[in-house]
UniProtKB/TrEMBL annotation:
Source organism superkingdom: Bacteria
SMART domains per the UniProt record, alphabetical: HTH_MARR
Keywords of the record: DNA-binding, Transcription, Transcription regulation
InterPro entries to which the protein is assigned, alphabetical: HTH_MarR-typ (IPR000835), MarR/SlyA-like (IPR039422), Tscrpt_reg_MarR-type_CS (IPR023187), WH-like_DNA-bd_sf (IPR036388), WH_DNA-bd_sf (IPR036390)
GO biological process: response to stress
Name of the protein described by the UniProt record: DNA-binding transcriptional regulator, MarR family
Cross-referenced SUPFAM superfamilies: Winged helix' DNA-binding domain (SSF46785)
Length: 158
C-alpha cells in the first residue's frame, strides 16, 4: 500500500520531518532541564544505555545510540574526566575496553533522571495513556520496518 502521493506530498507532513522535529525539540527540552547539572541529554542517554546493559563497549554504545564514533569518543572522554565513567580492559580479551558507570556516575544518573522524567511527563500531559502507548507502539513498528529495510539492503549488497 502506498501512503504518499508525489503530487500531494508535503514535507511538513512527512514522517521523517515530524520525527526529526520531535527529536530535536525533545533534545532542546531535556538539555534545558539539565543545564547546570554537569551533564547533557546525550550524556544522560549514554549513561542510561550503560546502566540498562544495552551497551558494554564504545562501539556497542555507538550502535545503540546511532551516534558518530568520534563524537561519542569525545563524550565518553568528558564523562570519564568528570568521574562519571570508567574504562576497563577486558580480562578475557585485552583488546576490548568495557565502559562502566562509577558510583559518582550512578548518583548523577539518579539525580538527573528524576529531572528528565519530570520534564517528559510535563510535555506529555496532553496525551492520554492510550495515546502514548499507541504512539510508542507505532514508532517501534516504524523502526522495525526501517531496520528490516536496512538488513535487506545490506544483504543485497553483500
Amino acid at each position: 500500500m502506498k501512503y504518499y502521493d508525489p503530487k500531494r506530498f508535503r514535507s511538513q507532513d512527512s514522517l521523517g520531518y515530524l520525527s526529526k522535529m520531535a527529536h530535536s525539540l525533545m533534545h532542546d527540552c531535556a538539555d534545558e532541564i539539565l543545564a547546570g547539572h554537569e551533564i547533557s541529554f546525550m550524556q544522560w542517554i549514554a549513561m542510561r544505555k550503560l546502566r540498562e546493559g544495552l551497551a558494554l563497549t564504545a562501539s556497542e554504545l555507538c550502535r545503540a545510540m546511532s551516534h558518530d564514533n568520534g563524537a561519542l569518543t569525545r563524550m565518553l572522554d568528558q564523562l570519564e574526566a568528570q568521574g562519571f565513567l570508567q574504562r576497563q580492559r577486558s580480562e578475557e580479551d585485552r583488546r576490548v575496553v568495557t565502559l562502566k558507570l562509577t558510583a559518582k556516575g550512578e548518583r548523577k544518573l539518579d539525580e538527573v533522571t528524576a529531572l528528565v522524567v519530570g520534564r517528559l511527563n510535563e510535555v506529555l500531559e496532553n496525551f492520554t495513556r492510550g495515546e502514548l502507548d499507541e504512539l510508542t507502539r507505532l514508532l517501534k513498528k516504524l523502526i522495525g520496518s526501517l531496520q528490516d529495510w536496512r538488513a535487506q539492503r545490506d544483504g543485497e549488497a553483500a
